[in-house]
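A common beginner's mistake is to predict each chain separately and then try to dock the pieces by hand. The better habit, illustrated here, is to supply every component at once so that their relative placement is modeled jointly.
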Amino acid sequence: VFKSESQFVRWLQSHATLAGSELRLGIGDDAALVRPLRGHELILTTDLSVEGTHFSSDMHPAESVGHRALARALSDIAAMGGKPKFALVSIALSRRYSGEWIRDFYKGLFRLARRFGVSVIGGDTAVHPGLTIVDVIATGEVQYGRVMRRSGANVGDQIFVAGRLGGSALGLKMLRAGTKHGSRETQDAAINVHLFPEPQCRLGEFLSKNRIATSAMDLSDGLSTDLRRLCEASGVGARIHTSLLPLAIAPPRFRLTLRELERLALHGGEDYKLLFTVSPRRARSLPRKLAGMEVFRVGEITKAGALALVRDDGRKERLLPQGYDHFRCRTKRIEPLRKHGPSFGSS
Amino acid sequence: VFKSESQFVRWLQSHATLAGSELRLGIGDDAALVRPLRGHELILTTDLSVEGTHFSSDMHPAESVGHRALARALSDIAAMGGKPKFALVSIALSRRYSGEWIRDFYKGLFRLARRFGVSVIGGDTAVHPGLTIVDVIATGEVQYGRVMRRSGANVGDQIFVAGRLGGSALGLKMLRAGTKHGSRETQDAAINVHLFPEPQCRLGEFLSKNRIATSAMDLSDGLSTDLRRLCEASGVGARIHTSLLPLAIAPPRFRLTLRELERLALHGGEDYKLLFTVSPRRARSLPRKLAGMEVFRVGEITKAGALALVRDDGRKERLLPQGYDHFRCRTKRIEPLRKHGPSFGSS
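With all components supplied together, the output reads:
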């Protein structure tokens, strides 16, 4: 597909950049140059996607790998209440991957970028004998003083999530089963939730512009793990009610018990839905849809302490984070990784 | 060293960030938040450092890998005439690497960051079975309209480089020889030029503030390769005189011919010195030192066409780029990679 790197770079240049007065220099110099918007602050985030950890070449088509790599970063911008603007893409490409793969990877990435008005303005490419590793950097802008943080939750605040939980983990389960049985089932909506997650940028902007949320973050590692991070940052605790969890909807032929769906909703990663808290007064009058997105109250913020799970029958349990710690490395699985700094406390 | 990822993140937080009114949120949320300086534009760059390509664990101590990973990005900021401000560090760490390695990697990176007033404000970490891959994102600011580009060189402009060329390639040569003979010679200044290159940020700012350069870039892949990129971006040609090349100084016990030193100066990578062009009028009165850095005139910009090399005896040759093309992958060596977009033309 690409005979030389310069041919590849020309292809990138012709596809990467949208028009925009804030962009002064895109791909093609030592660095990119942008003009920050006045009265706004700049959000910066970076997300690794590692072959064998975040994706595998037999289950994830190249378009999905590109889409997901950017979606991870855009979801962080959404969680801060920002409008995404620019992206840079660094890719250490395995020699085993073809020119078609890298073209399709960028197709998936560019399609998502265009839909959110994001310009790809730079990056770095290496071809090497190891695994394929992608690092996507995204910038966003947020009006001065309107950023949403993890640290603003107060006791009594109501906890909301936007959209159903566990859909990505369910899709991965189905994909694994399908792969095992030789059928890809890529047409299936449940699988597409996993392959092409939708970052909730419009909702994030809406929440920040209207000062609805006292705190916010995106669900990348599962509710039990991410809620704990939000609580640690805010110095509070939380209670979740299983009866309130918006469970993913599994296709009938793929039989899952209610308990299994609950597990996916509590611990499944890569949903990229927003988790946010709202003051009790505001929560009472909150519409069921915000920025076109259905939001669900799932619990409330409590005093600092362990996270609690209230079962349908009223039994209370501890809600333990079932996240992945890279420094303990107990398991090998396709699971999201942790960003720097989510955990302030001990885990 | 680090028992868990949260412990590692706390260590990072306590070392990473310098005070600064422009930083609003560092490590510890979904993304970092900065306040852009008024009247300035924002420079963004990202650089991969890949094990086996940019460094090898037997030759490069962890401190050097951290230093070099950041230096690559700061050198891009310097080339644009910017003042470096913030960095984000993504690292896919091989399971083979120890906690000591990652601590020493960050020590080397933080030491360089502090010296240049750069705050590390975020990143992403993964531990995986593959090779260690680092991606450093750096931001810089440059006064509105003062950015230096590759595309501004005019016919007749004089070509300058800042500092001696080929020093990094020479240091690598010595390091290889030393490793082979079982002696590390890390005390040697020539080896340190390779292990701990100094990005020329002060010179870059000086050139841009005083509008000295008509075009600029940093030498990461060797003069013959990078000058060609500058010429392609500017739509010009160039002539280099071997008699003017500021050759690296090899220790006496390491015997190299003049021709070998010339080859290193023309084609050796990873020098991270600035290459810039100056109008003939301005060049006549240019001091030998700028911002404390010795600058050398090495040739002149000509009409578009092949790059020419004029030998000491007056013979003229074509100067062919001896860079590395990742899509052709002819060689395996520890050599710098190419950033997106340096080459507009065919190569």
